[in-house]
Batch of 4 targets.
Target 1
Amino acid sequence: MEIFDLVVIGGGPGGYLAAERAGHAGLKTAVIEKREFGGVCLNEGCVPSKTFLNSAKVFDYANHAENYGVKVDGKTSIDQKFVVERKNGVVKMLVNGVKATLKRNKVKTFSAEAFIEGKDAEGFAIKAGDEKIIAKRLIIATGSMPVVPPIPGLKENIATGLVLTNREILDLTEIPKTLTVIGGGVIGLEMASYFSSVGTKVTVVEMLGKIAGPTEAEISSILQKSLEKKGVIFNLGAKVTAIEADGVVYEKDGKTEKIVSEKILLSIGRRAVTQGFGLENLSVNLERGAIVTDDQMRTNIANVYAVGDVNGKVMLAHTAYREAEVAVNTILGKKDAMRYNVIPSVIYTNPEVGSVGETEESAKAKGLDVKCVNIPLTYSGRYIAENSDLNGICKLVINKKTNTLIGAHVIGSYSGEYIVAVSAMIDLEVDIENIKKLVFPHPTVCEIVREAIFQI
Ligand code: NAI
């Protein structure tokens, strides 16, 4: 039986990056993936949804071309079949890239289902399909799957194809006339943004009183208004009670209502995948369905690590990347640890949202003495030059005691691209006076950070 220094179960962002880094460092490494390398992110999540959203952006521009002095003759229309084919091409290119990188780093890949049989003196006994291998160390990176609550009619209508998850919706080759989105979180909003742009009548049913979960309240409200302008209807404080063959039944303010819908998207969160691969044979501790890890990605079992969505900490691909590196560095005996307080997040709707760190609300809840600045993006020349809707804002949260930034929240073009600059300022605890001395390129939308800093 072949013995590996490290076996990684799951080939998504957490798993493939861990394998790449370990292989690069000279560990004899294997990674086992039962579906496609790249995981949910590359195949049915982050990347494919961005190809959809870029088509929507082009479509939106074409529909409003006159705002920029461009005449488009005739009616613009979307070729959804082409959008899906293009998406498949993008996915293929990236998945091939992952496979090539694993090969370059001498990682052995198994396209098979993994099963942990147990542990003996040599290491962990793992089955990769029909092959048996031994792992001296194990990284679990099995990811997450959509939460499917026990709502009457839900399971049956997933089977009929009426109800879709993130996986199936990204393969729709026809634009539905109507779409009801259950859950106004990140997946729901990105898909609402896409489908409303390309002509679907979209209704979002959200249990809470606001959309976009923990997003800063004012930004969440601007996002809601922008999507409403595109025709999206929001039913907030509404709880779905049943799915019928032609739509969604929900309760709001004590009344039962129904939305008739051609398609339904279920996007009410995801849960860690901890079953079906023999994890129970290791007695790994779980909490609320996810693997418990410390800040070095160690579980309660020696030489077993867990990275990515499976530890339920921050279900984002870029968190998984960093966790993968921390796990491998820990294995290599290099000092490293996760810092979860400065993980940026982006919602790729149009307009786009970029956030990092504390909101005013979360900082105050922690008892921090904060100051906030809130300015419109119209302080940026490039923003005005390139947009016809000028409702974007930038909000900074400053810790008065340390005179450093602890949060930034922006809605508007490119915010997802430059939020990392603010992450660095927060992470490195740069003094506000030193941020004032940084030179920002002009004209750019990211200059908004500099403008806001000078308003403090
Ligand atoms: P989510 O946790 O972002 O949002 C789920 C929403 O559903 C919440 O607002 C919740 O209040 C609502 N909800 C729950 N039960 C409900 C019910 N019965 N009726 C109505 N509303 C209900 O989850 P989502 O959108 O499914 O995304 C899953 C994961 O994928 C998240 O962890 C997210 O961070 C990640 N993701 C990240 C993206 C990004 O960074 N751009 C893009 C897509 C997904």
Target 2
Amino acid sequence: MSLLTVGTVAFDSIETPYGKADRVVGGACTYISLAASYFTNDINLVSVVGDDFPDSELKYMKKRGINLDGLDIKEGEKSFFWAGKYHDNMNKRDTLATELNVLADFNPKLPASYKNSKYLMLGNLTPEIQMKVIKQMKKRPKLIVLDTMNFWMDIAMPALKKVIKKVDVLTINDEEARQLSGEYSLVKAAKVIHKMGPKYLIIKKGEHGALLFQGEKMFYAPALPLAEVFDPTGAGDTFAGGFIGYIAKTGNTSFENMKRAVIYGSAMASFCVEEFSIGKLKKLNARTINSRVKKFSSLVNFKLD
Ligand code: AMP
């Protein structure tokens, strides 16, 4: 069923303990849409790039069933650019540069064909843009998921809180959950965040997996222990893309199905980190994804005697 994805389509420069990648393809919406494309081929992307973004990458996205009618290509302007450097502990990174470029004055206009999309994935970008997209929907989507980061909490908290109020699922990492709620305990943070609007909360904990909360209900998905993590960039977005892609494919928004979606999201994220940029996300198929999901299942499966 139709899925509307919003977020950055960008260039990234990345340094990890394993090496460097300069001006490679990145962006929250790129990772989200590619991950989701392994579950549904009815994806409507909303974003903005400059004329520096490679045509070949856009062609590739189209080939994967991602509709780019909502991608604004600004002549003579530069795409969003982010640079980051990871510590030896790759759960930690420093942002070296965030250049908004085309994003600074982006005013999204949804093509008519997008306005009835059943699922809405608001990836990381300006909260004002996330709100503008919600407002243009003809009918409220069955599920609205929002991903954001500390950058927007630091510079746009009031606007971010307004948009958070409108969504069903919020996905953030543990430090962001603490920043947003003012609580250190993630259980207490979840309670505070539920009161802000979202019925469901997913807290991503990098190599330590992810937690799904709905009121008193809680579910924990581990991350797959990997021998080598080359580049964690986009893992959170890939998780979100796998999560919403699985929900869109199954059309089921129950807590039980969300648990499965969290595992599919975690499986997609485990692929993402194995190569720089979107390298690995280009090489998957249903068979490789399902066999990875089985690994997650056996990782936590045990018998009570
Ligand atoms: P993640 O590692 O999941 O947090 O996502 C990293 C991706 O998000 C990179 O490909 C960046 O291009 C993009 N990104 C970084 N900072 C921002 C920001 N402030 N707003 C939107 N996208 C961003």
Target 3
Amino acid sequence: MNIVFVGHVDHGKSTLIGRLLHDTGSIPKDKLEDIKERCRKNSKAFEYAFLLDALKDEQSQGITIDTARCHFKSDKRDYILIDAPGHIDFLKNMVSGAARADAAILVIDALEGIQENSRRHGYMLSMLGIKQVIICVNKMDIVRYSKKVFDGIKNEYSLFLSKVNVKPKAFIPVSAREGSNIAARSGKMAWHKGPSLLQAMDSFSEAKKLDKRPFRMPVQDIYRFTDLGDDRRLIAGRVEEGSVSAGDEIIFYPSLKRSKIRSIEMFNSPEMKSIGTGRSTSFALSKEVYVQPGEIMCKAKEKTLPYTGSTFDANIFWMGKEPLVPNKEYKLKLGTAKTYAKVRSVNRVIDASSLKESVAKMQVDRHEVAECTIETIRPMAYDTISQCEATGRFVIVDGYEIAGGGIITKAAKNGGMGLKEKVGIRDYKWVRSGIKFSKRLAKYGHKPQLILITGKRNENKIRIARKLEALLSKKGYPAYYIGIRSVIYGVDSDIRSAERYRDEHLRRFAEVLNILLDAGLTVIATASDLHEDDINDLKTILKNKEFLLAIVGENYLVEKIADIEIPKYMALKDVAIIIKDHVLSSR
Ligand code: GDP
């Protein structure tokens, strides 16, 4: 069971963890002596927190997360304790999936009392859906084990927690330094009738059976083995929830590509039939499909599947130096997907410490929580937090820093218009030409048709297109060549970064092609590096229009969708003739 320790700095988180490890006999004697000896040598007072530091160094090797973890065993179960030095790191790790906490221990200093951070952390636990929480009122030795002090903190903090819907399992007065009420009840606080910390931890119920939940694996990477003459591709990632077996039908979101699991491939491990939550793995598929890192792999027959769209409602916890404002572009990371997003509206803002609310505020300041509607620049797959925690959470990056974390509460009803809907409206509103299609056909003698030439950069596509244009024109076709650049610097002059708005550039290019085809032309177009999903989008926009796809040079397409494959180093003239022959035969 993973337990995270949170609380204001210096309230004693590390000491508490050190104590817990020590008092449960989880620290080897020689190690303890070693640390004590080192302290003596350096004339430094021994601190239980040093145990944690020593273990951190030892255990964190090879772990690339910012929080340290320690393991220990009670009579009841195994624990992983996660020390969250700051709530930003904690949030970052929780949201990125680097750390998953089943329960939390929140530490409050008895002398200093409840700090703003104590409340913010409580709020965050509520937002992250961590339901099992223990509150330790620490440093009871400093307040002479006073029941009154403890009760004061307990009453005040209970009230706060009830407002944020957290029902703590226990409030425990402890002294991490003295070891009171940690692994065993302490005689010094006989007035405390509740459990020791360890007893309370042991009474946590086991994490819900994540293997039984809907299967979700954000795709991290796709490996190819072409070097070894093997054309297999492996889809790699970490199973966030649920389980799958070889033979299961799967579907990727948002591309909706389907295939079947041929085998589960684990490095250095015997073949596995099934795999469950928390494992990093890779899959070979029965039918190769084109998917990209960032998609979510799901089981096709599952009842609960992710949403796809570009709009959703979310609760955002903001930690950025600059406020979160509507219409500014931020990076958004969800699972393994990265995209750009804007806040469409700030619906309600709450101060995470005072819980003061405002519906009039238009921006979200540091340490505030807000209910917002978010719009991403491209449709993405996501879950609501109640469906799946790992793919229902995201982080927002402002510049280069993680500035906020959020959970998706609702898939917005007007969830961003999909391409199909946009095309539907376009066709409905289309102003038709006065000349009938049949008349135009009779005049040109050829059906309008698109020949789209793609391939990697520097494959001579433009020269091929021009040659083809000349050949077809000679044959009497109303041939017209257009390259994507003609659109980028004209129709697209209002959008800048080509990479970020690649989809939008392509969409507009396709709309221009659609107009040229409507005019009855034989359109020859070139665009580099088109992939399966680009081509699908083009086909959606060009609805029912004739379409030939030629790929020049290396055929990097995973699916067999190219009509014409032109090998590398073929003479320009021959290439154009091959394509022309295809066009002629497709009449
Ligand atoms: P963290 O920042 O929350 O991890 O806090 P630390 O565990 O580093 O503790 C901060 C300081 O409080 C250290 O100097 C500890 O020795 C001290 N401290 C922690 N627990 C207790 C306690 O129960 N009693 C007393 N008197 N001091 C404590």
Target 4
Amino acid sequence: MSGLLLKGVSKRYGNGINAVSNFNLDLSTGELVVLAGPKGSGKSTILNIICGLEAADEGEIFIEQQSCAGVTPKDRDVSVIFPSHTFYPGHTVYENLEFSLRLVKLPAAKRRERIMKAAEDMGITGILESLPEELAPAESFAAILARAVIREPKIILIDEPFPDIPPSEQELFWQAIINLNKKFKLTMLVATNNPEQALALKARTVVLKNGYIQQVDGVRKIYETPANVYVAQFINHFHMTTVEGVLSEGESGYVLSIDKASSVIPVFAPENKKLSNYVGREVTVGIRHNGLKPSRHAESGIKGRFEEVRDENGVRTGFFKSKLFDTLVDVDASVKAGDKVTLEISEGSFFIFDRDTGKTIL
Ligand code: ADP
Ligand code: MG
């Protein structure tokens, strides 16, 4: 069954900004979907329209097949989690969870039952008697998620759940969201401007740019086959450089020459019709840095040298510099500063885009 359906939703603010344009999305009940895009891409506007804090100018919203037209925010059964939604200090976690049930009008025994069940499912039984100010960030996040489910909403919306969490702790947070979705089988939409988070949630993902959908698919699929240069750059680990190149057809297939052929990349794509239209033309090449490997003998790749090599607890890192870009790569013990090197680009780590439209050719 459809858990949430958005049909042709558009929103223009008074200042003339089109925050969301013709947004269409269908989530099945129990599905977790990620809304990914940088700041200003329209994520919060979409969430606010779903929960009823903002009105759309156009389009329709259905929650479990019921139209939201004329339904007040309170009656939509949507729980929203904003980063600013914290607990009341000086009251235990249990008390805080209970506050949010006051509005539901349940007998005390029922309230207790729901709180205990949510606490168990979210792994926070041990902190129910703690004060919010005593909790570790991951614990308080799990408790905030528990608070969102005990009202038994039809949908949970999470907006930029943890902007200030150190990367070392983020994993726990991502896992808490995944657990919540699995345990409660809730329809969830999670907005994030953090690509690592989008990748870690391993869900169907919508990539937004200035209010327009760029691509919708499993996040791994998007990472491997981005629709355009914007998506490739956003759904990415580490860094992607884009450079201009020229596509030509050599004896053993297509070749990309970059920087007046100082760097050459073979393109393994025999009989690619789309590519053959681009022979002799300038294209945009996207190179993912995590797909680069140093090689002394490579015929093709990005030519440069190691400016510096560092050894930290046996992990050696070379600072690679070339005319095109600088990057850090793992190196072995034989590499020293000053060495000339070619960085080979592994298959699947570079993309070719139409220079004018940005659309992916390969
Ligand atoms: P995100 O959550 O992805 O950062 P938003 O939905 O907050 O994006 O914003 C989308 C666009 O709408 C941005 O250009 C933003 O400046 C604009 N915007 C958001 N809220 C308002 C508002 N209340 N009034 C005017 N413009 C707004
Ligand atoms: Mg936002």
